[in-house]
Amino acid sequence: MEPRIDLMQNEFGGKLAKRMYAVHSLVQQTGLPTATQNLVMLRASQINGCGNCIDIHAKEAAAEGETTTRLNLVAGWRHSTVFTEEEQAALAMTEEATRLADASDGVSDETWARAAKYYDENQLIGLVTLIAMINATNRMAVTLNQLGGSYEPGLMAAVVSS
Length: 162
Known about the structure:
Layout: H1 11-28, H2 34-48, H3 51-63, H4 68-73, H5 85-98, H6 109-118, H7 121-143, H8 155-161
Helix pairs in contact: 1-7, 1-8, 2-3, 2-5, 2-7, 5-6, 5-7
Domain Carboxymuconolactone decarboxylase-like: 25-96
GO molecular function, one term: peroxiredoxin activity
Protein name: Carboxymuconolactone decarboxylase family protein
């Protein structure tokens, strides 16, 4: 499988990536913990089967100090002891919001209340935005056959800031 378009080498694609990255920068201003953001992006990418995004977010999280144990257990977070209750609430929301087509009710009131117990309104807006943005990114990367495996930590920030 070959990439259909190299998004970062395309002029319009590069502009789009910079704007999407800018939204992520806004999410960082909400106070939603960086570790939680990394877990959310990794989990949504796993659900969507986006090898490129899994590669990026696992490596970026590791570069920011995330442990191998936690990264390896993200897909099985419900059956592990390494995530806080706050992180579990964010991961539950990530799964329900990512699997909208599979769950006719979308994000349940129970899951929302669980997240609202740990995160303030700005953080909840950040969480919802982050989930929406990573899902959009996953869909673009999978459609364009962006392949995982060769990403180096810091590359995305360097590319979009140029």
